[in-house]
Amino acid sequence: GAAWTAIYTAPQAERWAITGITATGVPAWTPVERIITKRRGKAVNVTRPYFPRYVFADIKAHHDNWRGLERVDGVENVLTNNQQPMMIPTAVISYLQHAERVGAFDLTTREPIGLHIGDQVNITGGPFAGLHAQITAFMIKLKSTSSRKRARVLVDFVGRFMNVDLPIEQLEKM
């Protein structure tokens, strides 16, 4: 069920807000992405929030006291609808946490965490969910609006082998 809410932070205050929120006993988290950028002509690895100015807090045990989160340093407000915190299904947060764990937001390397070319995988999402496949290649779409890591997998679909490109967060090693 939904227990998480989104919190809008001051500019570049996501880590500060997470520290303050967790100090109140409320679990808080935000996904981070790793990118390569140029600084003074040199390539530098940078870690930054995937959703700038937003963090997520699990208010299940603190639902009646969510307004107190707005007094935490770095927090501007809790996103609301009709004076109630907007709730985010736990499944959405779990999906984002899984994507971060497997390296979907790490654009400094092509290969995801824990997956390799040749690995046998289960497909966990999308139209091929439930099928088995073998990873044949990795790619990163950097210039698209949805920069993300993808894997090309060989799928046995209705007795015919076909190559399919899937987001890595839809793959689970067998």
List keywords for this structure.
single chain; 174 residues; mainly beta; five-stranded antiparallel β-sheet; 14 strands
Describe the structure.
This protein is mainly beta and 174 residues long. The protein contains 2 helices and 14 strands, in the order βαββββββββαβββββ. Strands 1, 2, 5, 6 and 9 form a 5-stranded antiparallel beta sheet that branches. The protein is flat. The model has no long low-confidence stretch (mean pLDDT 89).
What's the topology here?
Blueprint lengths: L1 E8 L4 H10 L4 E2 L2 E8 L2 E8 L4 E5 L16 E4 L1 E2 L2 E2 L1 E3 H12 L18 E4 L8 E10 L6 E10 L2 E8 L3 E3 L1
Q: Give unreliable regions as ranges.
A: none
Beta-strand percentage range: 35-45%
What pattern of helices and strands is seen along the backbone?
Answer: EHEEEEEEEEHEEEEE
**Number of helical runs?**
2
Outline: flat
Kindly report the oligomeric state of this protein: single chain
Q: What's the number of extended β-strand segments?
A: 14
Radius of gyration: 19 Å
**What's the overall average pLDDT, rounded?**
89
Can you give the helix content as a percent range?
10-25%
End-to-end Cα distance = 28 Å
Structural class: mainly beta
Main β-sheet description: 5 strands, antiparallel
